[in-house]
User: Which sequence fits this backbone?
């Protein structure tokens, strides 16, 4: 592929969506999504031509990164499969505190880009919000319109409650979400319109 072809290759440039913030993350638009009687299915349990009951569910990505890395590298490959479902949470690419910041920025940018791609294809998308230490707050809430429905994961947070709550409160201040889908048992101190999701039930396909 020539240099000119690379500059015209959308999957190389990733510059087709409107951006915001210091790091120019793609913007995820606020969408009206019915989350009453919410039910989620793991991306690992999705399949082509799924049954009617599963198609009424939303898809989450609170699993190991290797299970969904291909979504960013080849987003069109799984588009038809994921378009069956009621809505999609954006991929939860890891932002571990012991990652260098450039890797955390990369994880957030990949998640935002995939979400913007899905929205551009007409799918309903709920952004998954993740953070690590306080210096990640500079970028980890960017690209989300205020008042959006968002999702957070509780798996692995129980041992770092203070750090989690610091980031959670910062997220509330920055995004002011309409509702928060909480994957796992929320801490009693968590404020907002929280919708708790049983993570064990959501790992089971029908």
Assistant:
């Amino acid at each position: 592929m020539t240099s000119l072809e690379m500059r015209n290759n959308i999957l190389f440039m990733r510059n087709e969506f409107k951006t915001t913030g210091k790091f120019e993350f793609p913007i995820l638009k606020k969408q009206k999504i019915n989350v009453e009687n919410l039910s989620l299915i793991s991306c690992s349990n999705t399949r082509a031509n799924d049954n009617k009951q599963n198609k009424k569910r939303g898809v989450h990505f609170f699993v190991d990164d290797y299970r969904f890395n291909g979504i960013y590298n080849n987003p069109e490959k799984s588009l038809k499969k994921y378009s069956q479902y009621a809505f999609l949470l954006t991929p939860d690419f890891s932002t571990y505190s012991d990652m260098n910041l450039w890797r955390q920025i990369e994880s957030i940018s990949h998640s935002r880009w995939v979400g913007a791609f899905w929205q551009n294809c007409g799918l309903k998308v709920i952004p998954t919000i993740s953070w690590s230490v306080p210096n990640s707050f500079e970028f980890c809430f960017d690209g989300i319109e205020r008042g959006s429905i968002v999702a957070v994961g509780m798996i692995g947070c129980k041992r770092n409650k203070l750090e989690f709550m610091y980031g959670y409160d910062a997220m509330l201040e920055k995004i002011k979400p309409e509702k928060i889908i909480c994957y796992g048992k929320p801490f009693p101190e968590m404020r907002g319109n929280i919708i708790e999701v049983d993570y064990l039930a959501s790992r089971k396909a029908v």
In short: The two ends are 44 Å apart (CA to CA). The chain has one domain: 30-202.
